[in-house]
Amino acid sequence: MSAAQRTLRVAHLYPELLNLYGDGGNILVLRSRMAWRGIACEVVECHVDDTPSFADVDIAFIGGGSDREQAIVCEKLLACRPELSSYVEDGGVLAAVCGGYQLLGHSYLMGDQRLEGLSLVDLYTDRGTPRLIGNVAIESRISPQPIVGYENHGGRTHLGDGVEPLGRVLFGHGNDGQTGEEGCLYKNVVGTYIHGPLLPKNPGVADYLIARALERRYGDATLEPLDDTAELAANKVMYDRLMGGEETE
Amino acid sequence: MGLRAGLARTAGRVCHWGLHTVLHRSASQLPGRVALAIDSQAIAHAVPKLRHGSVVVCGTNGKTTTNNVLACAIEASGAKVLCNRAGANMAAGVAAAMLPGSAADVAVMEADELSTVHILPQLRPNYLVLLNLFRDQLDRAGEIDHVIDTIVAALASSPQTTLITCGDDPLCMGVARRAMEAGTKVLTFGIAEDLGLAPDRVPEARFCQRCGAELTYEYRSYAQLGAFSCPSCDFARPTLDFTATGVSVGREGISFDVRAGQGAPTRVSAAFGGVYMVYNLLAAFAAASLMGVDGATFQKAIDTYRPANGRLQHFDVDGREVVLNLAKNPTGFNQNISLMLADNRPKAAYLVINDDYNDGKDISWIWDVDFERLAADDALTVIAGGHRANDVQVRLKYAGITARIATDVADALQQVSSADKDQPLYVLTNYSALWPAKAALERMGTKTDGGAR
Prior knowledge:
The complex is a heterodimer of chains A (about 250) and B (about 450). Helices cover about 30% and strands about 30% of the residues of chain A.
């Protein structure tokens, strides 16, 4: 097994539209963490005029954009919903942040208009005031460390019965500011309001995605450990700041 | 003048005197806040004392420098100028800067983009200079579409104001087109030649502001600025009213020929800045010439102008050159990276990112900066700093750069103390980190003229 070159293919969906908050950092982190382990990483950017194919994709990533851009992306993806749905049901890894997270559900709002989502996960999004903005920390079974990041959303996302949240809110707002739940976990889909560069300070999440993809493609999720001193220090500094009362919600 | 307006002016001035003379504090905002609290139209009520009107400068990057160069140039022509030089650029800052004296010739005011909608209806300036639009502080300013809507609304509230904007920037031209349709007169400036520079990342505005098709470029100068056109509609860089050609950009500074229409060229040169500074000075030249300043006077003003407020300031600390500059968003950082790479000496960079309210608490944007370009420079040492030093360190790690962390400028200088003295240290910081760094450098070293040496 070790002799064979392992390759994973990452599909970055509409990077030119969904790039509001440094979302590209996630792809850089996936690519680097594979490279450091000798796993070949092929990144395929799916652009607005391409018809995406998920046949040989191992990890798909959807970022966040403005309302207008998000609506364009949703329309494009609705056109290939059956294929995307089969990919998800087959255990394909999909990470969706911010606006991309909202697209996973049955519907979301743009202005006062209700738009149809991809219905990949049993959830829907409406809106509340105020916008939920600020640093956030959650605990999640997919990461050995708390997951930290930044949220900025007017949407309130409601999970269907039995849909597992990504984690429980330790600091910040999460899905709706009420339930203490943040994000969603469904098969190998990870959705979260933690926007932009989710993976850099949360190497546990990055490795979870890579491990699930390896398991599906090669039947072996074993990952060589990396030196994450810098990443974990950045994680801890923010976590300590949030939990130490230096910052108000 | 009504009683309320007079009272507002007096209260503002007393407040300024108290802060400035008694407490020796900066009086750039509070007197204006006091004046506006008493008279919400305090700016409008100060307008009659301006003999020749006013100019407002806004835009994501470069407004303080452009505004101050413009004020110097108009002053050099002999006019009495009111200006918010310290960069207090919301309505209160403008109101405070309007307080002094009973008469002046011209007000030259920097305005925060979102504050234009409060400032323009009162000040009703002759010109609004819109330099550029980049994404910046999304958590505070909101998406760029909101900034565009706000400036369009500000112009609609002051119909006599002419917009002077960057014809090379599709986002600025999006504003210009909408303003023009609403009756605003528009003049544009831009660089009318291919500078042949390595293109940096285009984080936004890749799509037509009118129809959404992907824009194409004959050439780009930086970010989304360049000779753009839409392949499927008529949205394109306009015929420029003020052009820069014969552009030279180097470590020793910049120079270019500026032309108004088909007129004779005026050579403009400055001992500071990169491509972005060509745009800043071009914009300042356009506004200055429209306000009656001739080319020779403009050049004289630049020759005596010294960057302040931590914008590209040079210091000598124990024989080592230290260059301090503000870098608060991806485009600003990318331009600073270009400046550093143009300096082919071995060098060090201290990159400082804070996340105070004034900086924007969300620093996700550091992943939109092309730090990868620095990785190619083997003779570069990078040090991370600020409240988010650890995030900067992680960002650099994924760019292929191993960076240590320093607690402040003194510590960063200490960390590079073993390097030859002829190796400069570049200190790039965002807003709230700028003042402590500037104060420390002023304490530890002496200001120099940088590229002018």
